Amino acid sequence: MSFPATRPRRLRATPVLRRMVRETSLAPDDFVYPMFVVHGRQVRREIKSMPGVYQLSVDQAVAEAREAAGLGIPALMLFGVPAVKDAVGSENFSEQGIVQQAVRAIKEALPELIIVADVCLCEYTDHGHCGIVRDGAIDNDATLEILQSAAVSYARAGADVVAPSGMMDGMVRAIRSALDAEGFVNVSILSYAIKYASAFYGPFREAAEGAPKFGDRKTHQMDPANAREAMRELALDIEEGADMVIVKPALPYLDVIRRVRDACQLPVAAYNVSGEYAMVKAAAANGWLDERAVVLELLTGIKRAGADLILTYHAKDAARWLRDELRV
Questions:
Q1: DSSP one-letter string for 21-57
Q2: Whole-number Å distance between alpha carbons of 207 and 213
Q3: What residues are annotated to the active site?
Q4: What does 130-167 look like in DSSP terms, one character per residue?
Q5: Ordered structural domains, the chain, with CATH
Q6: Beta pairing class for 161-164 and 188-195
Q7: 248, 289, 299, 325: which could form a disulfide with 271 (CB 3.0–4.6 Å)?
Q8: How far, in whole angstroms, is CA 76 from its chain's centroid?
Q9: How confident is the model at residue 217 (pLDDT cuts 50, 70, 90)?
């Protein structure tokens, strides 16, 4: 008998064979495509630090949503850039808020597309923090009332899912009770259960125009050094009624995604955030990386770590590349 008798390479011999035995599959159905909506018409303003990502007026957002749906992407996450900011983020819960307008327009054009509305204050407040600021600190419980109003407003506009991202204690329970009281019992909560105080959010703050005017967000977002604490946050959000949970960011926290996947039965999402996107785009623009190969590899890695859903700015490109692979 020749040595070695066991040859794992046999199952790597051809592309078709490799696909047949692949343990982790990646498909457009796995993606949620984040979009930034702004007031005006015919606005398509590229975000300098995120090539290929734009601030979009409602008419352009509808066109972008139609393109994403045509690629097989089932869901969008909407973030709004308000016309006016104030201390409580009033446009966040206005019936004429920019996200509310976008939800109604996209739902009218594409009723089957799932719309997820981010629920936070940072883009809407003049101070740029995720909650009501009193005496230089965030008032957690006063913030919950604003989040309730915003979530109900998004549900009334037609959002299928609301996604509280501010890491306020008790936010899931507060939003669930408000939605149920208004009759929106079938609107789901995708909670940012585990959101780290990450340096990878920089480009997003340009895109959403939501950088804090003072201080930082370390009093409410998690310390990047902590993983056991993530399990506590997860347990609380499950107990409060979350339907799905997010780990954010994704790539530096693949270990946390795996721990969350092993610890709960809810669908788990991971947010491949703006800084992760920007690094790949910059390296690809300089010819240092094969963008297609790297993006599909990193998204597969997030899925392999345990994510059921991936929020990613790469969604449209990745969906095209996956479609092309199936044609080969």
A1: T-SS---GGGEEEEEEEESSSS-EEE-TTSTT-EEE-
A2: 16
A3: 195, 248
A4: SSEEETTEEEHHHHHHHHHHHHHHHHHHT-SEEEE-S-
A5: 25-327 (3.20.20.70)
A6: parallel
A7: 248
A8: 9
A9: confident
